[in-house]
Protein: Carboxymuconolactone decarboxylase family protein
Organism: [Mycobacterium] manitobense
Amino acid sequence: MLTPLPADEWDDDTDRALEGTVSPERRNPTDAGNALATLVRHPELAGKFLPFNTYLMEGSSLPARERELAILRVAHRHGCRYEWVHHVAIGKQAGLTDADVEAARTGEASGAFDRAVLAAVDELHDKSRITPGTWHALGEHIDDRQRMDLLFTAGGYGVLATALNTFGVEPEEWAGKPEHYQAGT
């Protein structure tokens, strides 16, 4: 397990690792949050991973609602409480309803497109590929670039969930309650 980098160990390398992806007012041990403050224990890795993660959140062609549905399914499947707690709130800002959040947990959505998004995450988790049928179902609603972004969102957040779980990163008290959280299956 790793703890967030202590304040007296933050240095220019730490700041450079966060530069360009984290606002200046958050590039400190008090405001960075537990995940970032833990990732900067390895500034070179954080400096490479965080731009990719920022792309997934801010630059991806995948619509925000579907991105968050996928991330919540990833968080559930990986049993990552940190991702779940943070992305329930982000997902609701992106338009997810309580029923959508529950669908991300159970894998049982009412709409065909949401079912395809959840199936894609499950297939990637279980078999490291999206099956042709699911790829086709996704293609009825999103283009090739968006499907690629979906795949990389699931993979990127899967890696992040694995790291957060391994390092023992806990959600911050301000992040809210782990609403609907249950360990993944």
